[in-house]
Design a protein that fits this description.
6 helices
Length: about 120
């Protein structure tokens, strides 16, 4: 049986390449850890920043900010990139979003429910 130390030392993060010919590059998306996933989910709710209502309902864009990385796993985007990122080609954003959602198991429950019905 594995010890806690073995479990905590295991490298269970994944990084996957996503081809983006429209931007002449290959991007990478990474798996989120539990804390990052909770922070991402919370960031998708409307909130107030400096007294102004900020609409974080851009689920797709928020996921890309949380998971698009370089080949070493370092995040590429941050919160201030939300608006310009959301203005990019929707088909491209959707391709990257789908890769990240699959890697982060965001649709497993929804897919299982759909198959049941």
């Amino acid at each position: 049986m594995l010890s806690k130390a073995d479990i905590f030392a295991a490298n269970d993060r994944k990084i996957e390449a996503v081809d983006v010919p429209e931007w002449n590059c290959t991007l990478f998306v990474r798996s989120m850890n539990g804390l990052e996933r909770n922070q991402w989910a919370t960031s998708c709710e409307p909130c107030y920043v400096e007294g102004k209502l900020v609409d974080w309902s851009l689920l797709q864009t928020r996921l890309l900010i949380a998971t698009v990385c370089d080949d070493k796993g370092k995040l590429v985007f941050d919160d201030k990139d939300a608006a310009p990122l959301s203005q990019r080609n929707a088909a491209v954003l959707n391709r990257i979003f789908k890769a990240s959602a699959k890697l982060n198991a965001l649709y497993e429950a929804a897919e299982a429910e759909a198959k049941k019905n």
